[in-house]
Design brief:
The complex is a heterodimer of chains A (113) and B (113).
Chain A (H helix, E strand, L loop, with lengths): L3 E2 L4 E5 L4 E7 L6 E7 L6 E7 L4 E4 L2 E6 L4 E6 L8 E8 L8 E2 L3 E6 L1
Parallel strand pairs in A: 2-11
Antiparallel strand pairs in A: 1-3, 3-8, 4-5, 4-9, 6-7, 7-8, 9-10, 9-11
Chain B lengths: L3 E4 L2 E4 L5 E7 L5 E7 L5 E8 L2 E5 L6 E7 L2 E6 L8 E8 L8 E2 L3 E5 L1
Parallel strand pairs in B: 2-11
Antiparallel strand pairs in B: 1-3, 3-8, 4-5, 4-9, 5-6, 7-8, 9-10, 9-11
Classes of the chains: A mainly beta (113), B mainly beta (113).
Chain lengths: 113, 113
């Protein structure tokens, strides 16, 4: 029973274009959402987060959008660079009752030069 | 100056052995976690400790026992290792209290032969 879903296992994008990674969740108790980037043989690295009181958060080339009614969030990377090639995990947590980060299965992004 | 460090990075051992993975964080965080990434690449929480107290214990065989000697350390002991325990284990830490991201170690790849 996946509470956090990333339905695209992989995505290929041309360098300089926009990458859009999607994530859906089912648990309405989730109120904090995060994106992590992971290179092979390394741990996940925190990228950007958003709390449920916002619908957009931006940090440089990375923007996360949250649509609470649809229980959907997305990560936009503009412009995409070859160094962005990695696996991207969406994660969610409920701030009340102990903090447990629930991860999606990940999307492998390949940015082609 | 690694924020979350875990040792060893690789561990190959025979079935039936007992092994430990160590984790230390120098971020001053109150909450520490162990996650398991299985062969399908899902990241699933195993345990969560807050101020040395166990707060989350997912459905994990009791052969796995976390031990937190102090806030900065959360070690994972595994008894009677089985083939199915082969996975990558990640330690992480966060400030806790909601709306804070987790920082991950580089992972320990455990192979049981």
């Amino acid at each position: 029973d996946q509470q956090v879903k990333q339905n695209s296992p992989s995505l290929s994008v041309q360098e300089g274009r926009i990458s859009i990674l999607n994530c859906d969740y089912t648990n309405s108790m989730f109120d904090y959402f995060l994106w992590y980037k992971k290179y092979p043989a390394e741990g996940p690295t925190f990228l950007i987060s958003i709390s449920s009181i916002k619908d957009k958060n931006e940090d440089g080339r990375f923007t996360v959008f949250l649509n609470k009614s649809a229980k959907h969030l997305s990560l936009h990377i503009v412009p995409s660079q070859p160094g962005d090639s990695a696996v991207y995990f969406c994660a969610a947590s409920a701030s009340m009752g102990g903090q447990n980060f629930v991860f999606g299965p990940g999307t492998r992004l390949s940015v082609l030069p | 100056d690694t924020a979350v460090s875990q040792t060893p990075k690789y561990l190959v051992t025979q079935m039936g052995n007992d092994k430990s993975i160590k984790c230390e964080q120098n971020l001053g965080h109150d909450t520490m976690y162990w996650y398991k990434q299985d062969s399908k690449k899902f990241l699933k929480i195993m345990f969560s400790y807050n101020n040395k107290e166990l707060i989350i214990n997912e459905t994990v065989p009791n052969r796995f026992s976390p031990k937190s000697p102090d806030k900065a350390h959360l070690n994972l002991h595994i008894n009677s290792l089985e083939l199915g325990d082969s996975a990558v284990y990640f330690c992480a830490s966060s400030r806790g209290g909601g709306f804070s991201e987790a920082f991950f170690g580089q992972g320990t790849r455990l192979t049981v032969v």
